[in-house]
Design a protein that fits this description.
The structure holds two protein chains of two kinds. Chain A has helices at about 5-15, 60-75, 80-85, 90-100, 110-125, 140-145, 160-170, 195-205, 225-230, 265, 270, 280-290, 295-315, 335-345, 375-395; strands at about 30, 35-40, 45, 105-110, 130-135, 150-155, 175-180, 205-210, 235-240, 250-255, 325-330, 350, 350-355, 365-370. In chain A, the strands form three sheets. In chain A, strands 4-10-9-8-7-5-6 form a seven-stranded mixed β-sheet, sandwiched between helices. Chain A has a four-stranded mixed β-sheet with strand order 1-2-3-12. A three-stranded antiparallel β-sheet of chain A has the order 11-14-13. Chain A is globular and about 55 Å long. By secondary structure, chain A is of the alpha/beta class. The relative contact order of chain A is 0.16. Chain B has a single domain, classed as ACP-like (Non-ribosomal Peptide Synthetase Peptidyl Carrier Protein, Chain A), CATH 1.10.1200.10. Chain B has helices spanning about 1-20, 40-55, 70-84. The chains are: A alpha/beta, B mainly alpha. The interface of A and B includes residues 151 and 360 of A.
């Protein structure tokens, strides 16, 4: 099969599964009205799949900071920090993130994907082991592949399984990097961090926690699962993204290990990617302050999340194991999921469609992500749409 | 050694039948993806079953070169032998 034949096979598979005329995996958004509403086609649509957990994409403080940075520092840095230097904003944001986590060091990256790629491939290498949760995000898998370390998976959130796999590694568990996520992006459930820390300590391993979906969502000041559980000392490295609760794009790694800074010299994704733009850094700095002080936003977010989770469960939808701002309805077939996704779009609601093999256990998912700035009326409307569709989908 | 490989192959085929169905025709030359329709996620889950069955660690990087039942059985056999 030639290179292009492979892509033709992908096109044929998509055509067989997906409806014509709607680009399910790249829906054209014509205009964005607010953090929660946009124009898709010729209709006003409610965003319910954008991970904009705190609704900060239009926060005046962030907009102003970004405008000012563009005017004073330009549109881009045109190169990596190793080649083109570290701007004041890059350095300030790293200090602010380190302070936010009460940590010694921070490195800021251009995307969240790159943060995992750079951190994992910088920490682990040939001869080491990375032990990852089976439901890990693609950026974790790809970072592991890039590292050259041996990749072993454990069953999702199964601590007996993690323990078994660490035991099997014997002495090699001491050169093992365990990787988990604060909130898992597929089903919205949390890692059992206290149990993971116990196992990590017992086996002398190193622990990396990805707070991509939990930053801004969990903990008194929004640090994530690490703050909610009070286990900062048990975690070696924390990564995360700016593209969800912080409403921008970028990523970070924080740690109390002084060696973190050496990643700047060994991690290829860091060395060979252009650094974040001044506007991105400026809006993220403003957003981080809002996130830190965002207790009220978090309360609204959780109120919305619990309301939708309860409503969907009451209607008979199969959901992830616990309420969370990521609420996934689990369907048996891609056709069912597609029908629900399409039905919601016809009701003016945009959510995420996840088909095998991207979803766990061969299932299909229709995933909602709730925001603090969704109004009560919007949440009621979403519940009503799911209720109408349940009669067709769950019949 | 040969018997050990045969035992590994038989046990692997038992796990493969659970994924592909009891009527699936499985030989050492059977292609895991094309003939048994085992996609990447199913293969990764199969590896966890195999690890538990044989009490070994199978790095998923090693699967890049695995296409057939024989190749997977050989990989498992090789890891088992290295452990003994």
């Amino acid at each position: 099969m030639s290179l292009l034949d492979k892509l033709d096979a992908v096109a044929a598979a998509r055509k067989a599964l997906l409806p014509e005329g709607v680009d399910v995996f790249g829906i054209p958004v014509e205009e964005v009205y607010s953090s929660t509403e946009a124009k898709i086609g010729d209709r006003r649509i409610l965003f319910l799949g954008t991970n904009n957990y705190l609704g900060l994409t239009f926060a005046p403080e962030c907009l102003q900071a970004a405008h000012k940075a563009i005017d004073s520092e330009g549109t881009g840095t045109t190169g990596s920090r190793m080649a083109n230097g570290s701007y004041c904003g890059h350095r300030a944001l790293e200090r602010e993130f380190a302070d936010f986590y009460h940590c010694q060091s921070c490195i800021v990256f251009t995307t969240g994907y790159q943060a995992n790629l750079a951190t994992i491939s910088g920490l682990a290498g040939a001869g080491d082991v990375v032990l990852i949760d089976g439901d890990s995000h693609a950026s974790i898998y790809d970072g592991c592949r890039l590292s050259g370390a041996e990749i072993i998976r454990f069953r999702h959130n199964d601590m007996a399984d993690l323990d078994k796999r660490l035991r099997r590694l014997g002495e090699r568990s001491r050169s093992t990097l365990i990787i988990i996520e604060g909130i898992y992006s597929m089903l919205g459930d949390r890692a059992p961090l206290a149990d993971v820390v116990k196992l990590k300590n017992a086996h002398g391993s190193t622990l990396l926690l990805d707070e991509a979906h939990s930053l801004g969502v969990l903990g008194q000041t929004g640090q994530g699962l690490v703050e909610e559980t009070g286990l900062m000392d048990g975690v070696d490295f924390i990564t995360g993204t700016f593209s969800k609760s912080l409403g921008g794009i970028g990523g970070y790694c924080v740690s109390n290990h002084p060696q973190l800074d050496q990643l700047r010299y060994v991690s290829r994704p860091y060395i060979f990617t252009a650094s974040p733009t001044p506007a991105t850094i400026a809006s993220t700095r403003a957003a981080l302050r809002l996130l830190h002080d965002g207790t009220e936003l978090r309360q609204k977010l959780w109120k919305n999340a619990r309301q939708l989770y309860s409503r969907l469960r009451e209607l008979g939808y199969r959901l992830g194991p616990e309420p969370s701002p990521v609420i996934a309805t689990i369907l048996d077939t891609p056709q069912q999921a597609l029908a629900l996704w399409n039905g919601l779009l016809e009701h003016g609601i945009y959510v995420n469609l996840i088909l095998p093999p991207a979803a766990p256990d061969g299932k299909s998912l229709v995933r909602c992500s709730v925001s603090a700035v969704h109004t009560s009326e919007q949440m009621d409307y979403v519940g009503q749409a799911f209720a109408e569709l349940s009669e067709v989908i769950l019949r | 050694m040969v018997n050990d490989y045969t035992d590994t192959l038989q046990k692997l085929c038992h796990h493969l039948r659970q994924l592909a169905g009891p009527d699936a025709e499985i030989t050492p030359q059977t292609d895991l993806i094309d003939e048994l329709a085992i996609d990447s996620v199913k293969l990764l889950n199969l590896i966890m079953e195999v690890e538990d069955e044989f009490d070994i660690s199978v790095p998923i990087n090693a699967l890049a070169d695995v296409q057939t039942v024989h190749e997977l059985a050989s990989l498992i056999h090789q890891i088992k032998s290295a452990k003994q």
